[in-house]
Amino acid sequence: MSAPTIHPDSPGNLAPTVPTRFRSQRYPEGLRINPFDLVPFILLIGLIVVILLIDPRLANLGTVETKANAALTLVLIATGQTFAILTGGIDLSVGGMISLTNSLAATQMTSDPLNIIFWVITIAAIGLIGGAINGFVIAVMRVTPFIATLATWSVWSGMALLVLESDGGKISPPFKEAVRTSIFGIPGSLIIILVLVGLWLLFKRTRMGTRLYAIGSNEKSAILSGASAVRTKILAYALCGFFAAMAGLYRTVQVGSGSPVAGDGLILPSVAAVVIGGTSLAGGRGGVELSIVGALIMLFINDLIFFAGVRTFYTPMVQGVFLILAVAINAYGYRQSLKRARE
Amino acid sequence: MNGWAINSNTLKWFYRQNRNIILSYVGMLILLTAVSLYRPGFGLGNPIALRSLLLEAAVIAIVSLGQTLVILSGGVDLSLPWTFGGAAVIMTVLTRGQDSPALWAIPLILGGCFVVGLINGSIIAYLQVSPVIVTLAVSGILLGAVSGFGIGSTGVIYGTPPPAIVQLASGRWLEVPNLVWLGIALTIAATLLLSFSGFGRRLYAIGTSQQVSLYSGINIPRITVIVYILSAVLDGIAGILVAGKLGQAYLGMGDQYLFISVAAVVIGGTSILGGAGHFIGTIGGALLLSVLTAAIPVLNLPRPFQLIVFGLVILLAVFFATNQTAREA
């Protein structure tokens, strides 16, 4: 039987075309996950297995604590960077923010508990406000994220140098103890990482979380569907600044002192961790849980470099190579999945 | 050719076309005059101070030429610090402060820069990866390689460039520093390349719209690769010359120049999105930065203020340029 077909776009067709079955499955039946999304997880497990094969004595709880302590700085920055990258932008100012908060924490914090609380809150506020300024410049003043955050990187770095001229200062001992406490035998840094993942998985399901992804995937349609690009971006960059500030604070605990250029070497690793985790630089795909996997991968790669007896100044070289490989694989995987979605 | 007759319409058209470039020069002159009035002996009226201002601006301009070309094409080159610093450090390692090895060392280093640019450009053009990420990663790779080569082979962090390079970079001709003459020569060369060559027109085209350029039959990957190669080789030459001017090369000597180069380009009115601007604008940006750098100690501000002021000036310049373009569109 052949009913006269009306082209769906023709003005004669007044009935809205509702698809009978909403196609949410992009991938073949039974395989709902893009195999390329699994690459970071496989890489992480592979790295852990290799390291344990090299040194089986590492398989104990003490290692978990050492690794969690070592990973936390990068995990925090990468978490923040994920928010910026999910909106389709990038935040290079995390370097300056870490330098500034690291310098402040190392010079201003005393052993007095009230003083410690004051400075923790102040540093968190500096991160939020600094990040919100980035968001404002990007969303309202419409400056490209790369150049906006390069400029604010310079401003924060200048401020860091005003606070602390050269490497120095020290961590307040009670604060260090407070951060390093373990609860029920679980080290504090591991608890922070787990709480971070939990909060992220909750945030992802809130309206704000949905908007973050919507703005990143297609800004125009997100705005047309009622999401505020300005508010979402300011929030994303404010969170990015907040996590960078926390990373600067934690670095003070980890290193025990401050440096006005502490963050400059962390810009490349922060972007690399996010991208190696599988978050798309174009925005809208990925997440904090992936960036944490990415940060752990980078940590274990550094361990492998160390085991191999390669001198540490080659580390950025390996990070760079991995960043390019990750971006290339990610772009290839995305193109493949688009191709499959079209078929 | 009626269009060439000077009348108010041509002037208006010229001003609209080059508004951001003209403004960078006007800003620089206002700042220079203001500080000169506030502190006589600074800048205007003091030939020695003026000469050092010009020298500083020439250094910034030479370092920023490669960045100008890349940004015009719609990209950015974050690997500048280590192409620049790497060329300088490797030159001192290979020549050990002697003139004769420089004859083979410098071509070898520039060949290395060529390869760096080729890698940058090829990955960006053929794998379609964001320039920010590729050049950031390549910068990390060079940082590791150069530190390994520099420290690993000599154990020293500071090296001395060959005397001939020092002579070339710090000498003067007719009382004007050689680097200023070089800056002038590069301006002429860049103007010929950008405004009077087919390559320049294609460069502006791909910076304005990749899609339209593609449909116009422009070989986008080829232009992209050439731009990144030019940028890397120019960065290498700048590194060698700056090492000569300073009389030494050290790891990390390029760190400050990434920011300065991007600053000079955008303050000079070049759109960070590509397709609009000129090296003549970058010269204006370099002069403005040079005046700002010199003005901060004169005004009794601590040195870190330089970074803060540079950051704010960039934001202002880009905000101004972006809104101008948006209003015209």
Describe the structure.
The complex is a heterodimer of chains A (343) and B (329). Chain A has 343 residues and is an all-alpha fold. Chain A has a domain at 64-263. Chain A contains 13 helices and two strands. Chain A has helices spanning 39-54, 61-86, 94-108, 113-139, 145-163, 173-180, 188-204, 207-217, 219-224, 229-255, 267-277, 288-307, 315-342, and strands spanning 182-183, 186-187. A two-stranded antiparallel ribbon of chain A has the order 1-2. In chain A, helix 3 (94-108) packs antiparallel against helix 4 (113-139). Chain A is globular, with a radius of gyration of 23 Å. The relative contact order of chain A is 0.18. Chain B has a single domain (48-318), classed as ABC transporter involved in vitamin B12 uptake, BtuC. The model of chain B has no long low-confidence stretch (mean pLDDT 83). With 329 residues, chain B is an all-alpha fold. In chain B, helix 3 (47-72) runs parallel beside helix 8 (178-196) and helix 3 (47-72) packs antiparallel against helix 11. Chain B is globular, with a radius of gyration of 20 Å. Chain A binds chain B through residues 90, 137, 141-144, 146-148, 150-155, 157-162, 264, 267-268, 271-272, 275, 281, 311, 313-321, 323-324, 327-328, 331, and chain B through 76, 123, 127-130, 132-134, 136-145, 147-148, 151-152, 255, 259, 262, 266, 272-273, 302-312, 314-315, 318-319, 322-323, 326.
